[in-house]
What does this fold into?
Amino acid sequence: MLPPQTSPSPPQGRLRPVSAADVRLRHLTVHGYRRAYRIAGRGPALLLVHGIGDSSATWADLIPALARRHTVIAPDLLGHGESGKPRADYSVAAYANGMRDLLGVLGIDRATLVGHSLGGGVAMQFAYQFPERTERLVLVSAGGVGRAVNPVLRAASLPGADVLLSGLRLWGMRHAMRLFGDLMRRLDTGLGQDAPELLGLVDALPDARARSAFIRTLRAVVDWRGQVVTMLDRCYLTEGMPVMLLWGSRDSVVPVDQAHTAHVAMPGSRLEIFEGAGHFPFHTDPMRFLTLVEDFVATTEPADWDTERWRELLRAAGAGGGAGNAPDPANERSAT
It folds into this structure.
C-alpha cells in the first residue's frame, strides 16, 4: 500500500535512490479481476499508461529515474501483460474507469498521466471523465487524434484476425516477419524503425485469451478504415490543463502529422518531436524523454479544476465557440 499522498517530496536537488528491484510487478484484485502494476517512489503521482498489446514492462527502465521525485504507477491494462483477460469491455472509457479505480485502491487522488499510443487515448479519456483527478497530460505518440493508423492494425481488426495472430507465432511466419523487418530497416523506413517493438507485441500474445483481449481492444478503437475514436471534438476542455505532446518524426503507427493536429487543437500545449524516432520515442532516446517529463512537471502547476469553468467551456462549445476543434461529422468518429 502506498504511503499517504501528503508524504513530503525530497528537497530540490536531493534524489532518492530507486533500484530495479523496487519496480517489481505487484498484483491486486479490483472488481474481481486480477490487476498487475508496478509502483515505486514517493511524491506527486505519475500514472504511466502503455499502448495496445504492450505492458508496464515498456516503462521499466524509466521508472527508477522518475521515482526519485515521484510516486510512479505503471499498470498492466486489463487484457494485457499479467492482468486478467476476461470477456469484458475494452473501450477507452472502460480503461479510464479502471485507472480511476486502481488509483482509488492505492489511495491516490490526483495524478499526472503519461500515456503512450492507446494509453494516450486512455489518458485523454481519463482527463475528460475525471478532470478533477487529472493534474497534467503527457501524450506520447497518442491514439485518438486522426483517422490514419498503420495498415497492419487496420487488417488486424478484420474478421479472422485471431487466425492471423495465431499464425504469426509460427516459426516460419516469425522468421519471415523478422526478415521483412530487417529489409525495412536497411531501406531506412519508418516501419523498419518500429519493427523490433512491433514484433515484440506478437510475443506478448501467447494464448487464445490474450489474443481475444487484444482483438477486442483493437476493435474498440480501430476498424478497416482507421481509428474510430477522436479527442478533437472535446479537447477544448483541456484549457487550463498543462499538456505536452511527444512524438517520433518517423512514427509508422500513428503519423507525426497527428501531433501537429493535436497541438493546434489544444491551445497552450507543448510539442516535442524526436527526430528520427519511431512510435516508441521513450525507447529511442530515454534520457531526453526523462528530461522533458521531469522539466514539464517541475515547471507547470497542476490543473485547478473548476466546476463553473467546465460548464462555461461546454456552453461556449455548444454555442459554436469550440467549433474550430470539432471534427467533420461525416467522419463518424467519437471519443465516447
Notes: Residues 1-14, 323-330 have pLDDT under 50 and may be disordered. DSSP finds twelve helices and ten strands in the chain. Strands lie at 26-30, 33-40, 45-49, 71-75, 111-116, 134-140, 222-223, 226-227, 243-248, 270-274.
